[in-house]
Amino acid sequence: MKKINNLEIMSLIIIISISLHSCINITLLKNNTGIDSWLASLLSIILGFIPIYLFIYISKYEPSMHLSEKINTLYPKTGKFINIVLNIIIATIGITILYNSSNFITSQLLYHTPMIVIAILLISLSTYHISKGIDSICRVNFLLTIFNVFLFLISLLSLIKSISLDNYLPLLKTNSNNILLTSIKLMVNNTLPLMIILCIPRNKSMHPDKYSKDIFKTYLISSLISFIMIFALYGILGPYLINVFEYPEYMVLKKVTILGFLERIENIVSNQWLIGGYLYLTVIIYYLSSSIQKKEKPNNIIPIIISIIFLIITFNIFKNNTIFNNYIKEIFPYITMSLFIFYILISVKIYITKRQPKKVNRQL
Q: How buried is 364 (Cβ within 10 angstroms: 0-12 exposed, 13-18 middle, 19+ buried)?
């Protein structure tokens, strides 16, 4: 594997942290915290420093290894089982993203195109991209992240005048326990899946010594973008109008104009979510392929098999939007939350492993 620029790796954090906002996180917020969603978002950012710290701690252990290899090293007897369970959880997140992205395209952009066709095109593109290797994925991701941030800034500058502070009143209308629980769910959706980035060994970055600082900086940037998105969404539509639309974030983009005369560009600006979903899906399939094959550049057959399995499961489970929306509200946050168990298992074992030589020295 070639050395990968730190900026390219950090751009993956931005994509993973923000991609789930379209439909998934917004659905979670509007059904639980409503007018106080901005506060839940702020709390989730603070709580997110816990998994970020654990992420960095894990990355320092055997920095030349893929995450699956670290798990096998730490747990020689049960490592394979732990990796299988972890891969199933990560695959579930990938299936969720595949349906969410396909559904958005079908319902908002290509009304007459069957969703299965959109899903096949998305996952075929991801599979082809994986054949080029993780260094190619990171380069493309970096360029598209810059494009995404550009679209975000255009949207923000155009919509900021439409924000009404009255839409945030009254404050603390939602039960405090509900705000805390929702902030935890939001945090696990945004930060815990970052674990998949550990498929890129820390030593493969160009500047391993700056890796930890870059992670923290990028997390702050992505958190700021996430907070602004939620804050602006509620400030423009308000807590009641948001509940009317399936994709309120898309409806807000209809207000975007450039230089006062370029209008109706929401389909262009909404590409930031489509690009994010595609890149997120690509990294997940790469993680699964490299974990199974134990190779930096997996053979083409494994990503193809994973992609076919994704398609079969996706359209056999999510037969309609009602099932998917209920799944997002009731099940998905707990699936991502289960990743925290792996953070703890790996971190605690690393801590014990590092202390063992010291104990032996004392006995000698």
A: exposed
Q: How far is CA 104 from CA 157, 240, 249, in A?
A: 24, 22, 11
Q: Does residue 359 surpass a pLDDT of 70? A: no
- pLDDT tens readout for residues 208-222: 888 889 899 989 988
Has residue 179 got a pLDDT over 70?
Answer: yes
Residues 6+ apart with CB under 8 A from 333: 28, 185, 188, 189
Give the relative orientation of helices 6-19 and 211-242 as an angle to the nearest 10 degrees. Answer: 20
Q: CA 97, CA 95: separation in Å to the nearest integer?
A: 5
Count CB-CB contacts under 10 A for residue 117: 13
Res 309 pLDDT > 90: yes
Q: What is the pLDDT of residues 223-260, one digit of tens each?
A: 888 888 888 888 888 878 888 877 777 777 777 666 55
Q: Under DSSP, is residue 258 helix (H, G, I), strand (E, B) or coil?
A: strand
Query: Mean pLDDT across the stretch 339-360?
Result: 83
Separation between Cα atoms, residue 317 and residue 349, nearest integer Å: 36
How far is 74 from 63, CA to CA, in rounded Å?
A: 14
pLDDT given at position 50:
92
Phi-psi region of 210 (alpha: psi -120 to 50; beta: other; left: phi over 0): alpha
pLDDT at residue 206 tops 80: yes
pLDDT per position as a tens digit, 285-301: 999 998 888 766 667 78
Residues 6+ apart with CB under 8 A from 313: 95
Residue 12 has a CB neighbour count (10 Å cut-off) of 24
Rounded distance between C-alpha atoms, residue 149 and residue 91, angstroms: 27
- CA atoms within a 13 Å half-sphere pointing along the CA-CB vector of 172: 2
